[in-house]
Structure formats: structure tokens, C-alpha cells
UniProtKB/TrEMBL annotation:
Keywords: Isomerase, Metal-binding. Its EC number is 5.1.99.1. Pfam families: Glyoxalase_4 (PF13669). One of its GO terms (molecular function) is methylmalonyl-CoA epimerase activity. This is Methylmalonyl-CoA/ethylmalonyl-CoA epimerase. It is an enzyme of class 5 (isomerase). Belongs to the methylmalonyl-CoA epimerase family. Residues 5-134 form the VOC domain. The lineage of its organism: Bacteria, Pseudomonadati, Pseudomonadota, Alphaproteobacteria, Sphingomonadales. Gene3D superfamilies: 2,3-Dihydroxybiphenyl 1,2-Dioxygenase, domain 1.
Length: 139
């Protein structure tokens, strides 16, 4: 099993609305999607296109959101996770489990509409890592 393309960098923010001007006006991003709620994961999401990947802005939908806990420790927000693509989520899950990695929950549908799971930071060099099945028909 090999990790594929870096799909996105997840950046937690207390407010997507307040973060968008930074990405648009300071960073010069022109491909900023519309924010949308992802209730199954307790977050609001907005993708910012860059030439070689995406930034996923993530805001908690409520106090039970895992992003709310992250923001309690990092009130200004910051990098939350990296996301890599794999061709087959079931194969990737089995491989990570064989390596002894701790998975955070079972595969579920993520913000791109494809299956995802997370690998515990302690097993990934200190970085929370999302593994995502590559979208059908490209990126």
C-alpha cells in the first residue's frame, strides 16, 4: 500500500466567514468554495483551491464537534490534519491495521463524498492523518 496524492490540509478555524478574507485577500486564492455543513462529522467545511492541493477550512458546528475541542487548545485555529488519497479505502484500512496503527473510527463518507478514516497522530509522526479514497473521475 502506498499513500497517494496529498488531497488537502485541514485548517481549523473559529469562523470560516472570518477566515475567507485571509485566503482571498492575503494569499490570493481565487477558487474558494461555498461553505457547507457536514453534520455527520460535526463541522462546517469550505475548500480553498491552490495550484497543487486544497485547504479545507473546518469550523465546529457545535460544542460536541471534535474541532471545538481542538479550538479550546488552539483558540486562533491552525493546522488540524493532512489528507492523503488512496485507491481503495478497505485495502488501506487493512494495511494500517496490519501495521498496528490506531484508527479513529470506522470509514465514513467525508466532505468530498468519498470514504475516509483518520489515523491517530501518535502513529503518524505526531500528525493527525486522514486517509481518503480517491474521488472517481479525478480531483
Amino acid at each position: 500500500m502506498h499513500l497517494g496524492r496529498l488531497n488537502h490540509v485541514g485548517v481549523a478555524t473559529p469562523s470560516i466567514t472570518d477566515a475567507i478574507p485571509y485566503w482571498r485577500d492575503v494569499m490570493g486564492a481565487t477558487g474558494i468554495g461555498e461553505p457547507f455543513d457536514l453534520p455527520a462529522q460535526g463541522v462546517k467545511v469550505c475548500f480553498v483551491d491552490t495550484p497543487n492541493t486544497q485547504i479545507e477550512l473546518i469550523e465546529p458546528l457545535g460544542p460536541e464537534s471534535p474541532i471545538a475541542a481542538f479550538l479550546q487548545k488552539n483558540p486562533a485555529g491552525g493546522q488540524h490534519h493532512l489528507c492523503y488519497e488512496v485507491p481503495d479505502i478497505a485495502e488501506a484500512k487493512a494495511w494500517f491495521e496490519e501495521q498496528g496503527a490506531r484508527l479513529l473510527g470506522e470509514p465514513r463518507i467525508g466532505a468530498h463524498g468519498t470514504p475516509i478514516f483518520f489515523v491517530h497522530p501518535r502513529d503518524m509522526g505526531g500528525v493527525l492523518t486522514e486517509i481518503m479514497e480517491s474521488p472517481r473521475g479525478g480531483h
